[in-house]
Amino acid sequence: MQTSAAPLGIEESQLELTKYLMAEDPLPMVIRAHLHIERDLINFIKAAGHPQKQIPSKYVHRVQLALRLGLPTEFTKQLVFFGKLRNRFAHHQNATIAESDAERFDATHEPGDTVIEYAYDNTLAKLEDTERKRSVYDLEPKERVVMHIIALWAGIAVATAKLKGARMERAE
């Protein structure tokens, strides 16, 4: 069957795009999540009193600056890995989230750190969800990565709120 794309020689490209648009594609999720994390890094930098005009444009430099300004170093490995994941998705249209991505995100935490498991357990409890898998480590890789992203975002957001609160107290 001929489509309107066939005479133009773009049918294969159209089918590929349609497949991406109709699938549960992690690409927009990774890119959007990265935009949120980067925005919150900027918010942290601003909360630390750093002039907006002097905030670097590159993600890696924003991470370094936020760490110098007091962002807890426990986020360093997570931010670096997430930047690499985002870059892979930004430069490879067929990128997927694999088990190795979830494992690499797991490895960004110190041994014995249960923040991801704790966040997952709390989420299930709040939702009164008894249907989902009981351990975050039993989830599909994409879902595990999502939990890591949520925990990372929450950590940065909390650090920013604490910094803003401390600055307000000093101003009083």
Description:
This protein is an all-alpha fold. It has one domain. It has 7 helices and no strands. The protein has helices at 11-22, 26-47, 59-68, 76-91, 99-107, 115-127, 141-171. The longest helix has 31 residues, at 141-171. It starts with 10 loop residues before the first helix and ends with a helix. 21% of the residues are buried.
What's the short story on this structure?
With 172 residues, the protein is mainly α. It has 7 helices and no strands.
Key structural traits:
172 residues, 0% strand
Termini separation (Å)? 73 Å
- Annotation, overall tally of beta strands: 0
Number of helices: 7
- Major beta-sheet overview: none
- CA-atom Rg in angstroms: 20 Å
Average of pLDDT: 84
- Proportion in helices: 55-70%
Give the structural class: mainly alpha
Topology:
Elements: H1 11-22, H2 26-47, H3 59-68, H4 76-91, H5 99-107, H6 115-127, H7 141-171
